[in-house]
Amino acid sequence: MYRLTSGEVIERTKTRLTQCSDTNVSHRPFNTKGVVTDDQKSALSNYWQKVNGAKTIKELRPAQTLGKKEAKAVIKGRAETYLNHYRSGKKKEFISENGLNILISYFTKSADFEAINPNYSLDKGLFLRGGIYGSGKTMSLKLFSENPYFWRDGVTFESGYAIGNINSCINIENEYLQYGFEGINKYKRRNIITLDDLMQESREVQRYGEGRKNIIRDVLRARYELQQNYGVKTHATSNELGIETFIDTYGGDVVSRFSEMFNDIVSEGESKRN
After folding, report:
1. Considering the entire predicted model, what is its pTM?
2. Please, are residues 267 and 99 in contact by the beta-carbon 8 Å criterion?
3. Domains present along the chain, CATH in parentheses
4. Which residues fall within 8 angstroms of residue 83, CB to CB, at 6 or more apart?
5. Higher per-residue pLDDT: 260 or 206
6. Residue 118: exposed, middle, or buried by beta-carbon count in 10 A (0-12, 13-18, 19+)?
7. Which among 39, 95, 96, 127 counts the fewest CB atoms within 10 Å?
8. Mean pLDDT of all residues in the chain?
9. Nearest CA-CA partner of 104 in 62, 69, 151
10. How confident is the model over 92-108, as a mean pLDDT?
């Protein structure tokens, strides 16, 4: 293999730069002495300012402080988008007017939310429970997603009052089986998470060479400690209604902390799935 000398590399680089056809830069990037001119420096400087000054996703989609009326219009628009795109225009609403008002009060940090129930607090996450599968709990939370790629309407809610990625408890359990605790530590550390379908996962799982573990119980314990020390939020959904079932699965010590972690919202009604 023939290796170029440093002088040959410089000459080839000059030749290629000379062949550039950028209308904003001289066709001869180097003068005859091989030195960049002031005009060329200015053109290159302007180019990199444009590159480095490109707007980030946050700048393109800034968090907005929305009033309840504006937020309701946004959320209803998102619900319409979902119904049209994912359900072929079948108008089967998945959230009641009362449920919508409760969630909007929470996500807009309205004092009305805490007036609904003496146990409700804007400092806690949401726990949507209902005994009916497909009653719209998960999708109702997705309407408030902070992911700019999920809803392309340019609106995100204030940090700490939005839904990030919604994480299936079954998937979290599977990540542990595949990667160990390193695979699930992110769920213990994030500022905000949503645990979807509590109680649908296995009660205990066993990874090769390790003892049996109740993974979601470990995540809930870690989330509680983070909430107490740093004020992070955890949201959750479940089809279970009986508190005894939660105690049997996660233990009384964990379930006794639910009242400090969650605003408990029970949804009732028929399945909204087709």
Report:
1. 0.68
2. yes
3. 118-266 (3.40.50.300)
4. 89, 90, 91, 92, 93
5. 260
6. exposed
7. 39
8. 75
9. 69
10. 78
For the chain, the residue count is 274
pLDDT of residue 55: 40
206 strand-pairing partners: 212
Count the Cβ atoms, other than its own, within 10 Å of residue 265: 20
Nearest Cα neighbor of 163 from 55, 240, 236 is 236
Cβ pair 136, 239 in contact under 8 A: no
At 164, is the pLDDT very low, low, confident or very high (cuts 50, 70, 90)?
low
Separation of alpha carbons 122 and 110, rounded Å: 8
Handedness of CA 109, 113, 118, 120 (dihedral sign): negative
* Rounded-to-integer distance, Cα 123 and Cα 120, Å: 9
Predicted pLDDT at 20: 52
Q: Is the pLDDT of residue 110 over 70?
A: yes
